[in-house]
Amino acid sequence: MELDAAATDGALVNGDYFALDYVRDRILHVLEAADVASINLALEDLLGAVGEEDFATVAEIVAELRETLAGIEPST
């Protein structure tokens, strides 16, 4: 997504968002509630930036989301 944002390609960034949203829906059931909330908030912010075609903000949010996701483990 960061590459598409750097290329200022709104269609690709929108497609990237759709993919992230879809993957989120597929993994929610194995995550803790706090992690789900954190991901949902990031995706909500990301959707706003995508809609506004604010590519710098898209890149920032995605970088933060990557860090958040790196620290999440599935619940058992």
User: How large a portion of the residues is in β-strands, by DSSP E?
Assistant: under 5%
The profile of the biggest β sheet is: none
Q: Output the structural class.
A: mainly alpha
Q: What global shape is seen?
A: elongated
Distance between the termini: 30 Å
What is the rounded Rg?
12 Å
**Count the strands?**
0
Count of domain modules: 1
What's the overall average pLDDT, rounded? 94
Please trace the helix and strand order, writing H or E for each element. HHHH
Our count of helices gives 4
Provide the helix percentage.
Answer: over 70%
Quaternary structure classification: single chain
Stretches where pLDDT is under 50 for at least 5 consecutive residues are none
Short structural summary:
With 76 residues, the chain is an all-alpha fold. It has helices at 2-6, 10-27, 33-51, 55-70.
Describe the structure.
This protein is an all-alpha fold and 76 residues long. The protein has one domain (2-70). It is 76% helix and 0% strand. The protein starts with a helix and ends in a 6-residue tail after the last helix. The mean pLDDT is 94.
